[in-house]
Amino acid sequence: MAPQYGNAQQVLGPWLESRRDQFFVGCKTLERTQDAAWDDLQNSFKLLRTDHFDLYQFHAVCTMEELDRISAADGAIHTFTRARDEGLVRYLGITSHGMFAPRVALAAGRACSISTR
């Protein structure tokens, strides 16, 4: 589920609310800065009527420049790790598209240093 998919979150939220414990729920964001990603995460919680996600992903990270932005001092990686540390998300991930996707994904693992619990 993602904010970019029209009104999908608004439509799914009321249905999901009473069934949340039955599903592995993932969400993603196109935001690359810490504050914007936090706002996007909070909005998705509200619209999907849940207080946590099983998976939260950086969506469509297709260039090294985007990856640099995410891992910068004010980058969204800080929102992601905060959310994980606060128990708001269980797993963190990244999606990428295009011919540079393998390169970007490999570099993301190294640059972001997201450790597992």
Characterise this structure.
The protein is α/β, with parallel strands linked by helices. The chain has one domain (1-9, 24-31, 48-117). The chain is built from five helices and three strands. It has helices at 8-17, 34-48, 64-70, 77-85, 101-112, and strands spanning 26-29, 53-58, 89-94. Strands 1-2-3 form a three-stranded parallel β-sheet, covered by helices on one side. Helix 2 (34-48) packs across helix 4 and helix 3 runs parallel beside helix 5. The longest helix is centred in the middle third of the chain and has 15 residues, at 34-48. It is globular. The model has no long low-confidence stretch (mean pLDDT 91).
List keywords for this structure.
117 residues, alpha/beta, 3-stranded parallel β-sheet, 5 helices, 14% strand, globular
Quick recap of the structure?
By secondary structure, the protein is of the alpha/beta class. The chain contains five helices and three strands, in the order H-E-H-E-H-H-E-H.
Spell out the blueprint of helices and strands:
Blueprint: H1 8-17, E1 26-29, H2 34-48, E2 53-58, H3 64-70, H4 77-85, E3 89-94, H5 101-112
Parallel strand pairs: 1-2, 2-3
Count of structural domains: 1
| Count of DSSP-assigned helices | 5
**Sheet of most strands:** 3 strands, parallel
Strand content: 5-15%
Low-confidence stretches: none
Give helix % range.
40-55%
Q: Could you spell the SSE succession in H and E letters? A: HEHEHHEH
Number of beta strands: 3
Rg is 14 Å
Structural class: alpha/beta
Q: Strand order of the main beta sheet, please?
A: 1-2-3
Give me the oligomer status: single chain
Separation, N- and C-terminal Cα atoms: 24 Å
Mean pLDDT score: 91
Principal-axis shape equals globular
